[in-house]
Amino acid sequence: MKKNGFSRDFTLVVIGQIISLFGNAVVRFALPLHLLNISQSPALYGLVSALAFLPLLIMSPLGGVIADRVNKRNIMVVLDFTTAGIILLFLLLSRQVNLVALILVTLILLFSISGLYQPSVQASMPFLVPEEKLVQANAMINTVSSLAGLLGPVLGGIFYSMKGIHVVLAISMVCFFLSAVMEIFIRIPFVKRETDRGAFRIIFGDLKESVRFIAKSQKVIGKVTVIIAFVNLFISSLLIIGLPVLCTQVLEFRGADPNQMYGYLSGIMAFGGIAGGISAGVLGSRIKIGDTWKLILGVALLMFPMGGILSSAVPDMGKYMVLAAGAFLMMLCATLFTVQTMSFIQIKTPGHLIGKVISWVMAIATCSQPLGQAVYGVVFEQARGQEWAIFAAAGIASIIVSLYLRKVWIAEEMLDGGTEVVSGAYK
């Protein structure tokens, strides 16, 4: 590892993530959108999205245990090859079985793999970069994710409209295969932990140890994780379900394909994530962790102009532009918040617990998202013409969440001279 910079292996992880996350962005954009197009039902779209998301909650804690006990490089390689195989199987079966069921099963498998995969990536960061570079490293990984999210939906929307779902999935399959090949050459420090316990006792013991750490040793991590769960319930779920419904069923674009317009909107959101990642890398040493509640408040306040424009007499393209601007700013704030909180958790957690703790954070933080997606799917189907009210209600709820986060930081004595980011590290 380079003492004052990023190592060769971290660079390879970043390159592998660029390829893998691009393929992931393409397939996660195309499959749900294809389902919405063939069913024309926001409720079914929300239900399938919710059911597909559930395995992520189960697999993330298991992924954390595996990440702390198995070579993280090997996990990434095997799972990327497996994902490529799943997509190939979808292409072979898509004209022979019920398409709705096939999409659901495929999404469930992909989210399950994601639950196993992401803890390994996050847990590898402290082993690949020095502590003072963690904020910048996490910012870079988030930027890469956002870049993939920018290009994936935009290009996926174009190819989906021109060539159909099969070409899009073929491109995604190639990306996962290339990423797996790239990751073979990564070296991540790993020391095998000897134990005489059985597999079940190892898993149970490791999960119990990480839960005890979150619940007793570092209660602030648990509190912040629950807050993120509410953010996902009120905000993330709304964007995931609401934006494609608005683009494909509510707004009218003269001479433009609705699927492409949603692809562009997804790309704009990802560009906001890139801007947030860059801002986190540049401003990370100046942002106090106790001020992150303001980022959630900013996201909440953006809900009101986004909802208000939907009830106005502004032409649909004007409404689309306001939604795009709001989504861009929301992603910028959300990425800044994610980078700061993830770096905080990584530094506060001992090395042998990082994978498990992060996996619990991911599982708990996302547990509300399936519920939100299912509810928003029904709400958008039943409240046609009243979409502005959905945004307003989500905005009010999110303001309450941001104010509670402020109280959490104050209670932990972080806001006034406690834990803050200084030169890329927390003090």
From TrEMBL:
Pfam families: MFS_1. Residues 9-410 form the Major facilitator superfamily (MFS) profile domain. It comes from the Bacteria. Its main location: membrane. It is found in: Cell membrane. It is a multi-pass membrane protein. SUPFAM superfamilies: MFS general substrate transporter. The chain crosses the membrane at residues 12-31, 43-67, 74-93, 99-118, 139-159, 165-186, 220-241, 261-283, 295-314, 320-345, 357-376, 388-405. PROSITE patterns: MFS. InterPro entries: MFS, MFS_dom, MFS_trans_sf. Keywords: Cell membrane, Membrane, Transmembrane, Transmembrane helix, Transport. This is MFS transporter. It comes from Blautia parvula.
